[in-house]
Design a protein that fits this description.
By secondary structure, the protein is mainly alpha-helical. The protein is built from eight helices and two strands; from the N terminus they run αββααααααα. It has a two-stranded antiparallel sheet. The two termini are about 40 Å apart. The mean pLDDT is about 90.
Length: about 200
């Protein structure tokens, strides 16, 4: 009579171990994509208006890990940068960078992630939904970042108009950011689902 009980406990223990293993793998992947975002932030593309691959790293985390895990990865990246780890563009870090003129765009990544998570949780992860979620998230990042830029610029240098701010901070990056969205989604669709663990 004891064998069935022992077997039941063994099966339960095995299932628990497998669940713990899945959670550990998910956490490792979140940390990995936090590092990927940091590395992408350090890579600068020297075009007429130079830009980094920072947003590409964010989009990859969301598209590949999914909304929840991707958002945790983005949040972890921002927290690390805030406490001084040089994960931001130009190997910078610290609260000063976050409170600077372009810090709003870094905070805006979190809004992008939350919007993507919310939309895909509600509508699923079909291709049109992923594209819509990323475009709306990017728009939110632009909006928050530009408003932040205008406030900090006005305090530190002088008044600046919306069109001048958009010309400096948004318009040159729209096409590159759209290309990053397309590439991130392409990578996510090509990557075997069995390799990804989600929280």
């Amino acid at each position: 009579m004891k064998e069935p009980v022992s077997s039941a406990f063994a099966a339960k223990d095995g299932g628990s171990s497998a669940g713990q293993h899945e959670k550990i793998l998910a956490m490792v992947q979140i940390a990995l994509f936090t590092a990927i975002i940091a590395v992408c932030s350090w890579i600068q593309i020297p075009l007429v208006v130079p830009f980094t691959l920072q947003t590409f790293g964010v989009f990859c985390a969301l598209a590949i890990l999914g909304g929840k895990s991707g958002t945790i990865s983005v949040l972890l990246y921002i927290v690390l940068g805030t406490i001084g780890v040089p994960v931001f563009a130009g190997f910078s870090g610290g609260i000063g960078t976050l409170l600077g003129m372009t810090g709003g765009y870094i905070i805006g990544f979190l809004f992008s992630a939350l919007i993507y998570w919310g939309i895909t949780r509600w509508l699923g992860e079909k291709l049109p939904v992923m594209i819509l979620a990323m475009v709306l998230g990017l728009a939110a990042c632009y909006a928050f970042g530009t408003a932040w830029f205008m406030v900090v610029y006005t305090r530190q240098i002088g008044e600046i108009g919306l069109m001048a701010s958009l010309t400096s901070c948004v318009f040159p990056f729209i096409l590159p950011d759209c290309a990053k969205i397309a590439l991130a989604i392409l990578l996510a669709k090509r990557l075997p689902k069995r390799l990804i663990r989600r929280v």
